[in-house]
Design brief:
The protein is mainly alpha-helical and about 350 residues long. The chain has 2 domains: about 110 residues, no CATH class; about 240 residues, no CATH class. Helix content is about 70%, strand content about 5%. The chain is built from 16 helices and 3 strands. It has a 3-stranded mixed β-sheet with strand order 1-3-2, sandwiched between helices.
Length: about 350
């Protein structure tokens, strides 16, 4: 850790923080400028691998942390800890945190501060009324009820072959790029997470690795969730950092794809977000609306509840608490509720383009 390394890291940290205050600059010079090249290079380098190199990297970090902890307790037991040890440990920790902060933001994290999809689509995203929410929820319910009649068990079971799931998601982005060229997705790098079963215990369905450019999907979750989760992670790869924006972009991709199962997956999630927001404001209205939902949707909802109830444990709330604070630290003040904010994007979209556009 030479002195010039410290100078460079501190300088980059200051510059990154300065840039984050200027969303227009980030949008035009980073998100629509150098980031697409960074992302394509990452996906070109690692997309062909049949496993997630990013997960291997995370596994290596976990092993290092365990080793360091064991070494610490060994020295503690032998009473060999001193002021010099703690001073060096503090110095190394600060250096590593600065290093990760700089590379996280240079490779992807600055996208949290861009203008984003609302700017690109010229949407006026603002506070919405219960009436707006009621209109949206009923429209989404009609869509989910319609596709529930056409999604077959065979279509869902076809995603047991993950190559078919990911190929369909790539096709979805190919279709949506015909309408919105800035959503062009190539090359591909979307993979099953090595930690899928672990993810059920800590509550994740998918995640993006900014250091390798790979999108990882928890492929043990209920099948009807997988198409939408996949397109959501691909939206992160395209530079949409905020969860509400990635939700909306994933929805646009699934909606554009002529596939009952992909559309059902997206409308299922959107409907759940919308009905959840209705319930927060008027539980009676939410119950009235939900009574009209298709029996298959109710069945899938129960499967979803049973699935996560099976993996409930005391660690998950702690992990989700930490994740919520991570989102808040990255320009998403609502924390975990940032996912639900996709409702505002959907309302802005139908107000501009008409309810049929959903």
């Amino acid at each position: 850790m030479k002195s010039w390394n410290w100078v460079l890291l501190i300088l980059f940290t200051i510059l990154i923080k300065w840039a984050s205050w200027y969303p227009n600059w980030v949008e035009h010079n980073y998100s629509s400028g150098i980031y697409p090249t960074i992302s394509k290079v990452q996906r070109f380098l690692f997309g062909w691998l049949p496993f997630s190199i990013g997960d291997v990297f995370y596994g290596f970090i976990i092993i290092i942390l365990i080793y360091k902890m064991l070494k610490f307790f060994k020295l503690l037991f032998r009473r060999q800890l001193n002021r010099k040890y703690f001073g060096m440990a503090l110095q190394q920790s600060i250096f590593i945190l600065l290093f990760l902060y700089v590379f996280f933001n240079l490779f992807w994290g600055l996208n949290y501060n861009r203008r984003g999809i609302a700017y690109q689509l010229d949407l006026e995203v603002k506070e919405y009324s219960l009436s707006d929410l009621d209109t949206l929820t009923n429209a989404l319910q009609k869509k989910i009820n319609y596709y529930a009649d056409f999604v077959t068990k065979e279509q869902r079971d076809s995603f047991n072959r993950k190559s078919r799931l990911f190929r369909g998601a790539v096709e979805a982005y190919k279709e949506v790029a015909n309408e919105f060229p800035f959503l062009k997705y190539k090359p591909k790098s979307i993979k099953p997470s090595i930690f899928s079963y672990l993810g059920n215990y800590i509550g994740f369905q998918g995640y993006y690795n900014p250091f390798s450019g790979e999108g990882q999907v928890n492929t043990t979750i209920p099948r009807f969730l997988e198409p939408y989760v996949t397109t959501h992670e691909m939206a992160h790869q395209l530079g949409y950092g905020k969860e509400n924006e990635a939700n909306f972009v994933g929805f646009l991709a699934c909606r554009a794809y002529n596939s009952n199962v992909y559309r059902y997956s997206a409308y299922y999630d959107m409907y759940n977000y919308a009905i959840g927001e209705v319930a927060r404001r008027d539980t009676t209205l939410a119950k009235t609306i939900h009574e009209k939902v298709h029996p298959q949707v109710k069945k899938d909802r129960q499967e979803f509840i049973n699935f996560y109830r099976k993996y409930r444990n005391p660690i998950e709330p702690i992990v989700m608490w930490g994740y919520g604070h991570f989102l808040k630290a990255n320009n998403q003040p609502a924390g975990k509720r940032s996912y639900n904010e996709v409702v505002a994007w959907l309302i802005a979209y139908y107000k501009k383009n008409g309810i049929a556009a959903l």
